Amino acid sequence: MGGQEVARGELPWLHDIVERLAARAGLPKPRVAVCPQPAPNAFATGRSPKRAVVAITQGMLRFPHEEIEGVLAHELAHVKHRDILISTVAAVVAGVISVTAHMFLWFGGGHSRDNQNSSPLAVIGAIAMIILAPLAAALIQMAISRQREFAADSFGGELCGNPLKLAAALARLSAANERVRTETNPAFHNLYIVEPFSARGLASLFSTHPPVEARIAALREQAAQRRG
User: Fold this and answer.
1) Choosing a second label site near 148 at 20 to 30 A (CA), which of 92, 111, 114, 129?
2) CATH 3.30.2010.10 correct for 4-84+140-227
3) Burial 184-196 (b: 16+ CB within 10 A, else e)
4) In this structure, how many other beta carbons lie within 10 angstroms of the beta carbon of residue 64?
5) What is the three-class DSSP state of 150?
6) Quick count: other Cβ atoms within 10 Å of Cβ 39?
7) Can you say whether the dihedral through the CA atoms of 60, 183, 54, 226 is positive or negative?
8) Contacts of 19 by beta carbon, 8 Å cutoff, 6+ apart
9) Domain definitions of the chain by residue range
10) C-alpha closest to that of 57 among 75, 41, 68, 74
């Protein structure tokens, strides 16, 4: 990502936000980094709270500070719930299922040394498995990711003191990412708080993030319940 860790003297207000939120969440203060991309976005990484880093892009530094607070609260929610580790485990399980399906085709599933004794139905079943098993694993992995995003929104909304801060940031992020191209490897997109090329319709089943509209609606409902 090309991110560089920034010292408190460089961006004291950003460190103050992170330190305040981390204290509320009962977390050690993570390292703070800024990435050079002009497209506004943010992410957290690190396999444990003690090794966590929260990063925002240059494009996001121009956001109102209260919206940045909402975004960083969301990222600290990921750190608090160890979502980076959960996502890694989910990806590994999906990979194992995919490899197992391939192995089944070649070492079982009707592919015997004597092709004359192979069952056509078994071969068809093996081919179906090699296609459907990885597909099912991917769908489960994406569903877990979307659920964790909703959970991070909810926790982040409480952590920053007002869910509408995060809702406003998500709306601004979504609009900005439609105008400014994200110049990073697509493999990193699942880390962002807002996925750059949001899928719609059936393709959204393979999206790592819920629709921004649904996330904003949930945060507004959360804010209304706090007021009630």
Assistant:
1) 129
2) yes
3) beeeebbbbbbbb
4) 12
5) helix
6) 21
7) positive
8) 29
9) 4-84+140-227
10) 41
CB atoms within 10 A of CB 206: 12
Residues near 11 by Cβ (< 8 Å), separated by ≥ 6?
32, 34, 61
Strand partners, 32: 54
Token look-up 């009962």 returns 26
pLDDT, one tens digit for every residue, the chain (228 residues): 889 999 999 999 999 999 999 999 999 999 999 999 999 999 999 878 999 999 999 999 999 999 999 999 999 999 999 877 666 665 566 566 666 666 665 665 544 444 545 566 655 666 666 666 666 666 666 666 778 899 999 999 999 999 999 999 999 999 998 888 877 777 677 788 987 754 444 444 456 678 999 999 999 999 999 987
Query: What is the token pair recorded at 208?
Result: 């790592």
Identified catalytic residue from 67, 75, 149, 195: 75
Q: How far apart are CA 15 and CA 9, in angstroms?
A: 9
> Which of 2, 143, 23, 13 lies closest to 76, judged by CA?
23
Q: Is 75 a catalytic residue?
A: yes
